[in-house]
Automatic annotation (TrEMBL):
Pathway linked to the protein: Amino-acid biosynthesis; L-histidine biosynthesis; L-histidine from 5-phospho-alpha-D-ribose 1-diphosphate: step 1/9
Role played: Required for the first step of histidine biosynthesis. May allow the feedback regulation of ATP phosphoribosyltransferase activity by histidine.
Protein name: ATP phosphoribosyltransferase regulatory subunit
Single biological process term from Gene Ontology: L-histidine biosynthetic process
Localisation: Cytoplasm
Organism in which the protein naturally occurs: Papillibacter cinnamivorans DSM 12816
Amino acid sequence: MKPFSVSTPEGTKDLLYSDCLARRGVQAALGSLFRRRGYSEIITPEVEYYDLFLQSGNPLPQEAMRKLVDQSGKILVMRPDNTAPIARICASRLQSANLPLRLYYSQTVFRSGSANRGRNSEIAQCGVELIGAPGRRADLEMVATAVQALEACGVSDFRIELGHAGFFRALAAQLDLDEEAYERLRGAVEGKNFASLEELLDSYGKLPAAAALRKLSMLFGGAEVLDEARSLFDGGEAREALDLLAWLYKELSAAGMENRVQFDLGLVHQLEYYTGVVFRGYAAGAGSVVLSGGRYDNLMASFGRPAPATGFAVDVDAVAGCLAPPEPPVPDTVVHYAPECLRGALRLADSMPPGACQLSPYENPEESVALAGEKGAKCVVFLDNGTVREVKL
């Protein structure tokens, strides 16, 4: 008989045994940390109205969203992002709740299209949102929690790279750019496309902001990066951004996290969404970013409840892929039980570590022994009318 060979849709995959254990282990570690830090779990629908993400100014392109149509003709999307639905809840069902709100989630986002080609379309995320907390102490807590999140998962070799949306904006504001040129400039900095960057800045000569923008993509590394940035441009909003980053580094260093934190002033991803500190997490063994977040103070206002906010999301499977894969448990014991002995068999199974014991589905003792051999078990326990007999294999 020809084996069944229908594959899963593009961007999706089955998770078996070790993969499931790894995902659940990361989710459990993150959930435990977030609860200890005072965050409460929230779950949003997997399907939302498309208009929600238009209203929120969500940075995802249209083609990255999986669209559906309901019976009334309204356009729906499979949840492409966790933050906007949580903002919706904070402005509606939690409208009377006192700020700040500490919320965490563990759920899947769905993305597709050319913007997501070659990557998973179903992304398991765990993350936190701190709604209604302004200022640098909230930023400090968020970055520190991001560091602890990766440590809690067991990732040993990782770094968190910090940037600030205000630094790029301060530089770009010195140039007379229309919206299209601004986006091209942002894309050139983010993509480290130096040829395109030089073409865009050629007409601005040696203007200090233009000189700084030419080097922005190369301003990454340790605390010395901030000094170099000051030497290039240190006016207004740019100075405030650099001062905040320097303060964060000082506080994180005092907490023993200096070896986990670096800077990347060319970190300008999704710039119109973020308003302040932005950060990404990278881990050895992962082919992409494992953690991403930052401050987004304008989102809540689009839902009618203005409030500052910051948060981050962890790519659960990307983090799990950095860790040694756990081995599924192998049963040590198979229990063969006689009629009316189910209660004793269940008690015996429950007294052992998870996965260490299995009940035999067979009525014939020889079949139970054969099953134990196939499973690699070390013994078979026979229960019959209150008697217990153990046979070593």
